[in-house]
Prior knowledge:
By secondary structure, the chain is an alpha/beta fold. The chain has helices at residues 8-19, 33-47, 62-88, 94-103, 105-122, 129-135, 137-153, 159-171, 286-289, and strands spanning 174-175, 180-181, 186-188, 194-195, 200-201, 206-208, 212-214, 232-233, 238-239, 244-246, 251-252, 257-258, 263-264, 273-274.
Amino acid sequence: MAETRRSxxxxxxxxxxACGGINHLQGANLPSRAAVGALxxxxxxxxxxxxxxxQALAPREVPAFLSGLLDSLRPRLEVEIAKSLEFAAPxxxxxxxxxxxxxxxxxLRAILQTDVEAAFDGDPAATSxxxxxxxxxxxxxxxxxxxxxxxxxxxxxxxxxxxTEWAHGRTGIDIHPGAEIGTHFFIDHGTGIVIGxxxxxxxxxxxxxxxTLGARSTSGGQQLRGRKRHPTLEDHVTIYPGxxxxxxxxxxxxxxxxxxxxxxVQSVPPDSQVILPEQxxxxxxxxxxxxxxxx
Length: 295
């Protein structure tokens, strides 16, 4: 007897019942990824009017622009905060949290200005601070992380991580919203940078692409939640491409330089230079060496 084929609809419905992984059903209504992405982009418009929106603004137009943008943002931000609270922290006042967050954006702009200045001062290829704001992915990633960190500190679940993952997808820079970052933070190039949740970074840090500030091990899983798992960088630390620094007890002292491709799981005193042992380089002459020269 031929086996009765099940329709894709029935198979999917059975999968939903068995595996979950869907929104709106028998539980809290989760934040919308599309809505959070749109909100994050509009929040960047508030931080850098005219730079992220592409809308040229005359000085007299700025108050009306900001007023309209705030009026549009506020209720939608409240909705996504409310969804986040309903999921993991019921009872919070979404409206009050949203208003507190928006009030903190003006002081945050002053910190972001130090990041822009650090990028301009630290990169001879930069021709202006305007170029830095328009073309440097590190500024976008840092701006989003600093905003998400404000919500993280207020205990808002889900939403801060969704914001930084939105920036991660756009820039290739993965900074957890829990990371504490000082002023004048410069990410050069940026692609492949990972900065973990409990990382603490002092003022005037400079980090190149491919750097990981991570945990030594996550084999303990959820038992490690709340512990200091990621390194601390003191002021004026520079980390060159490809370096990996791990561990919650690892402290990189002030004014230290970490060389490229270094693997580090121990603390380093201030004013140090950490480099790999010199590697032996071999240079061959194409005509004298003979043989297969293809790589």
